């Protein structure tokens, strides 16, 4: 029996089905960028270390470089191209734009997808390494600047735009939950003495 | 033909008002395409094969089996590659680094030297074939270790002289009331822009077209034209969006290899570096070993200053990290000696990396100043203010604006410096020791000749064209604001097109000179266009275009010490049980000329300070003596600051200008990193009472120091 090294697969990306033949070695990241011309998802390290290729798989954050395309069949894949509502930017995108939450822009799609997933994880009550009360009944902790920093640390920004990114995520999270946490939304006023 | 009614007299100035990035929407929606994302019909993929030895010779390459693999189109190596011309002086006044002249001989001067390019139909096929290619070497012993007293260290002039000396150093040190004599070291550091280097080359109707990610299309086009002996008009380089550069994105092996393959195959070929390959091929900052000797009177006035730096270069190119240069600007003394030495070793060529010279140099010098302040019992800020020079310490030239004192005054006020207890090691909060530190910063303010064009369209809009690069600096937006003011129209009516060598020669995004150099040219072109329109010049359907060239104006700049300045402040907490150092807050106040766009300028200055945190606490490429390569050459092994490492830090500025610049710009790309690592290190001393003279200040170093090890 001849070994098969490629398959025809169907990926559901941003609500749309794409059927394509892929080399079994092709990562989801390369399938998006090289085969489907969805180049908004960035390749920063190709090793799962920088977060630039972060997409949402069934609503959860995932790095597309560590996912084989053939293994992504049947998943709901959301990329940066799919987070806006038509011409209306997603609140996270709008906050990044308004507060200058980027410089070169290369880590930005990953930061934004990561922030969207993170805000949902937080709302669902997931604790982080800096959450003080991790009992299930405690509910979501206040989304402070420190919580945002901890939860976003898988997304590197070599330009060092972290201050503005945290401000943008806080503003978008505030819009999402309808209740603001002053500490984060003002960039951490409680901790800053400057 | 229509008549121009495009200007208004009651125009509100755009420069100085915060403006979101003009390409911002494209960046937050993923629509902005970077070099490797521009589609080409018939694209082939090249994959570089790098040497697995650090020194020696290629004996043979087993290319036959690789050529038989699926999809493989060609294997390029030193036996079949086109000849390159390396006998020229490039745009930057420099000889080409042989590192980019790939496949010209069988010598291997460092681990990760490109020995072949495999080209295939898909990137998976190219990668598999490249990893299959067997290369036989004749290995020779290699040496990669730098030391301050290395016998091969010798002075090298970079963009400044290697050595400056005035006065009798030994005599002045001997007669000084207080003396500091210390050695400081900084490690090998890598730029690691988030976007890996990538280029696609193709021939189109007799013209070489390269779609690239670089810091200057004029520069890269010029280098390719020289290397391949081409007519200048037959090379076009485009680089619309650039995912960071920090000094690493000039001409490198991948562009040259892509051009070779595209020439051979007569189809578009893309070569992208992997993150791991970047550690060998994208340049880096050399490690430094610096000795600083300071001698001062009882009142803290410097009588003797020596700053000597030893850095490392490759065996094929002399690049000097001019760390001792910062002393030539910052402080004067009766005896003033500085020297930059290099040692050639079997490593890749280092290159410019954000604040070359100033970043490591300011760490050593500003840490030494802090040690002197401690010895003299004088406040570190007061010590610096007492040593403010009247003229350039080495040049004797006047300063074209030096407001370091105002930066310190404003910074001290906002940071709350006046309440500081100068004693080290006395503030404790649970398991944390707390401390604060400060340091001064400076970076040269230069300009490069540039050309630009400004076009008025019949619909009342304008197009600016300039071979500028926006590597994340916000240059595209800054130039939009500059043009809006020159034309006295709202910025929404300006379209700025950059990153295309066909727009004419322009300076690079480097040396903090980009936005200043381009603004000069844009203001000249747009200003003249407005005058012509005011005179009632009619607009033909294709619009009216005015061109500018700043060569004469820039060359006419009189001699002066032109620099940006800054005062950096940091508060740290040091965990006495784990040795972890956390930055709690940071403030930088800068005198950096006219700030064009406060929104993006703040971000860029903060980014520089984040680099300072990263340099002080995290970044270190460990080079393995046995293999000659970097251990853990990736973003898990090479640590850069991430979200959790960066607290709420603040950057501000004072009113400042360059009187000889048409806009008053000095440049802000690098000043933010200068002095930042020293401020953190000085704060660690204040917290713990232990001096850390080697970066990064790792937990193991903190613990060893606390345990009484002599050399932190």
From TrEMBL, chain A:
Source species, domain of life: Bacteria
Alphabetized PROSITE patterns for the sequence: 2FE2S_FER_1 (PS00197), 2FE2S_FER_2 (PS51085)
Annotated keywords: Iron, Metal-binding, Oxidoreductase
InterPro entries, sorted: 2Fe-2S-bd (IPR002888), 2Fe-2S-bd_dom_sf (IPR036884), 2Fe-2S_ferredoxin-like_sf (IPR036010), 2Fe-2S_ferredoxin-type (IPR001041), 2Fe2S_fd_BS (IPR006058), Aldehyde_Oxdr_Iron-Sulfur (IPR052914), Beta-grasp_dom_sf (IPR012675)
Residue ranges annotated for the 2Fe-2S ferredoxin-type domain, each copy included: 7-83
Name of the protein in its database record: (2Fe-2S)-binding protein
Species of provenance: Streptomyces eurythermus
Native organism taxonomy: Bacteria, Bacillati, Actinomycetota, Actinomycetes, Kitasatosporales
